[in-house]
UniProtKB/TrEMBL annotation, chain A:
PROSITE patterns: BIOTINYL_LIPOYL. Signal peptide: none annotated. PANTHER family: OXALOACETATE DECARBOXYLASE ALPHA CHAIN. Residues 1-70 form the Lipoyl-binding domain. Pfam families: Biotin_lipoyl. Keywords: Biotin. It comes from the Bacteria. Coiled coil: none annotated. This is Acetyl-CoA carboxylase biotin carboxyl carrier protein.
TrEMBL record, chain B:
Residues 120-315 form the ATP-grasp domain. Its EC number is 6.3.4.14. Gene3D superfamilies: ATP-grasp fold, B domain. InterPro entries: ATP-grasp (IPR011761), BC-like_N (IPR005481), Biotin_carboxylase_complex (IPR050856), Biotin_carboxylation_dom (IPR011764), Biotin_COase_C (IPR005482), CPAse_ATP-bd (IPR005479), PreATP-grasp_dom_sf (IPR016185), Rudment_hybrid_motif (IPR011054). This is biotin carboxylase. It comes from Geomicrobium sediminis. GO terms for molecular function: acetyl-CoA carboxylase activity; biotin carboxylase activity.
Amino acid sequence: MATITSTMAGNLWKVLKNVGDTVEAGEEVAILESMKMEIPIEAESAGVVKQVQKNEGEFVNEGDVLFEIE
Amino acid sequence: MFKKVLIANRGEIACRIIRTCKEMGIITVAVYSDADATSLHVKIADEAYHIGGSAAKDSYLNDQKIIEVAKESGAEAIHPGYGFLSENAEFSRLCKENDLVFVGPRPETIEAMGDKISAREKMEAAGVPVLPGNHSVASADEAVEIAATIGYPLMVKAAAGGGGIGMELVTNDDQLRKAYSSNQRRAKNYFGSGNLYLEKALLNPRHIEIQVIADSFGDAIHLGERDCSIQRRHQKVIEEAPAPALGDDVREAMRQAALKAVTSLQYVNAGTLEFLYEEGQFYFLEMNTRLQVEHPVTEAITGVDLVKEQLTVASGKRLSVRQEEVTFTGHSIECRVYAEDPVTFFPSPGTLSNVLFPRDVRVDHSIETGTEVTPFYDPMIAKVIVHDLDRQKAIEKMKQTLLNTSIEGIKTNIPFLRRVLDQPDFINENMNTNFVQKHKETILQ
């Protein structure tokens, strides 16, 4: 089981993947809004989304797990 | 003059406004969000009121709450600073309805200039040069049709836009279609209106703007120009006054065009006419109906305190300076210090350590060791302003100042600023708004 974590603190603006979706390495999986800027969050490795840990609109800290993938 | 003023803002600009208020003997009221409870502007104000949650919409954009606090505190006027409610006509109206003075222009003026399409029309009618363009486009298909008549390159822009958000340069139909849909979404998200328009794009323009201020007696003055060509992500990073490498005839023509605009709008309070300049020609870009981030460079070379004049005019008095009394001395440069990666420009929130600024120059900021830079607001954390006899000396002073500035604990753009100041094209007054892109190999290393 691998995880995709937030690269910085901010508001989780868009969650682009749901449970069961496949992700490619380097693919955008979520968009964070921090300091008035949209920050894309990318998957480091490929896999299938097992769990989405955060909801759109939620505040996330740096290092928070956003997705669990397999 | 007012006895008590509420500052509906945060960060460096709140601190800067409080400073002038104190000099004028005005009691200051700060407002703050959860995230800003221990901020400098809260500490230095005479009174401070908590107005809500950390997200801007829950606090600094909460117009009702701010009005409520203003009345409770007994403030007579509200200074909105820049950003947040500063260009919100509804808020300015709400102030009036509650017998509070909004330190800024009339709501009708804010409205007319806030919609970029209506602003273009008004300026064109007043005889201010505008870029060829179309007043609005209803669909991507229509945009492509219109593009054929104006010709590429084009700028896609949000009618309600600002701060570089919702605008994009396009050079063909494909790009235009993509830019249309992405910017419509973004504009709707940020400004509540997805209205877009097209404007002919200049390839290597400079950004030059004129500072104006007018009183309610119909007297208006300009305070010269600023060059703000050094930008990243369509946002200014380094500004200077006066604008270098500009012929006196063009300089004067821009100043007169700005005054023409002010007269035609029956403008009151401080404002800035932004122009794009290329090959001897200038074109109206937009008017900012508020105090600008970069106003200190104008203050440096004119000796005029813009916040003081704003408060004077807002209290119903005449401007304390006449046009013939405005003089321009030396050269001033401002560097905006952002909490961001100096290469990718991605924000870098966090806790600051070892914050140290040189004492012999003006630094407008609201940070100290231990300050937490939160992800909720703009990444600008300080403005370093130098003033010297000429441009070359000012550049040298800025380089020295940045060298002696310390901000640790997060990433800042100070390395980026220093690389820009070292560029021969910057030193030789050869800048335009594509400067960073053009020199990315050396600046973004």
